[in-house]
């Protein structure tokens, strides 16, 4: 098993963030995806920590010098050459997470929850599947509405957002995979506070707000005790974190929850537009915020691969969609029931699935 020794108490997340910060700053020529890490040796630890074990270690934030990174790259390349010289068998795709992380298409489920304490998971008011096609340089955002009919494993038929309330991100991921015949690589869960911090770190997002939307936005700001963030009326604003979260929550203007999913995608598009322009300092702050406040099931290798895409995101075509499709569902018992056969066929086509 290859190991990397880092002379600081830190986590895999901070390592990935620092590496990417150097890429953004132009200080490295090696791709982040070239770094194959299976374990981290932490100072003061008797045994190396294997990636994916879920072990918690104390965090002592400190910069990683480029010299350290280049040393790790050199050691990794040397290990590759030694393995090739020894005639070692190459891992099959299903055996190697590193190879899996190089997939040309990745499906990441973004979940927004209104949970405010540890007593329950909260409602999943945001369920957006982000499909990243690196070969075609395309990102597709597909919203799944909270009132969708869903056959939830071991729970039966409920509205889709019940899956998260009953079993968190894992059950919601499994439910979408079973109902729509898709493969989801990872999920990430954010609450109001984490989402607000992410928007603030990227410098806010520009939105055009109607007078009616402003009324409800200010109402949500009131419930968030964010009175200093009130907007005076309709207009075009660069929304800060609290304002963006309040905007995403609006469902009483326009076509109810259908329109709310559009607002959610609009905020995400605004964030994506900013990612390519982040400074190394902003990127590190974003990575630390995600590590500390976002629940996820990403491995280190998956994180590094995704981070390596950030500089090129401005060149990606961004598409969006929503399920149920307008012409492929009916309402029953307050649930939106899709024509599953037709919906799955259209979804697979939009996501570039064979």
Describe, in plain words, how this protein is organized in 3D.
The protein has 354 residues and is an alpha+beta fold. The protein has two domains: 4-90, no CATH class; 93-354, Aminopeptidase. Helices cover 40% and strands 21% of the residues. It contains eleven helices and 15 strands. The chain has helices at 12-25, 66-85, 97-100, 161-180, 192-201, 211-223, 241-249, 256-275, 280-293, 300-307, 340-350, and strands at 4-6, 39-42, 49-50, 105-113, 124-133, 138-144, 149-152, 156-159, 186-190, 205-209, 235-239, 295-296, 317-323, 329-332, 335-338. The strands form five sheets. A six-stranded mixed sheet has the order 12-9-4-5-6-13, sandwiched between helices. Strands 1-2-3 form a three-stranded mixed sheet, with no helix packed on it. It starts with a strand and ends with a helix. Mean pLDDT is 78; it is low at 1-45, 48-66 and 86-101.
Instruction: Report strand order across the widest sheet.
Output: 12-9-4-5-6-13
Specify Rg, calculated over alpha carbons: 22 Å
Structural class: alpha+beta
Mean pLDDT: 78
SSE string? EHEEHHEEEEEHEHEHEHHHEHEEEH
What is the CATH domain class of the largest domain? Alpha Beta
User: What's the CATH H-level superfamily name of the largest domain?
Assistant: LCP protein
Helix percentage range = 40-55%
Per the principal axes of the C-alpha atoms, what is the gross shape?
Answer: globular
Q: Distance between termini?
A: 35 Å
User: Main sheet?
Assistant: 6 strands, mixed
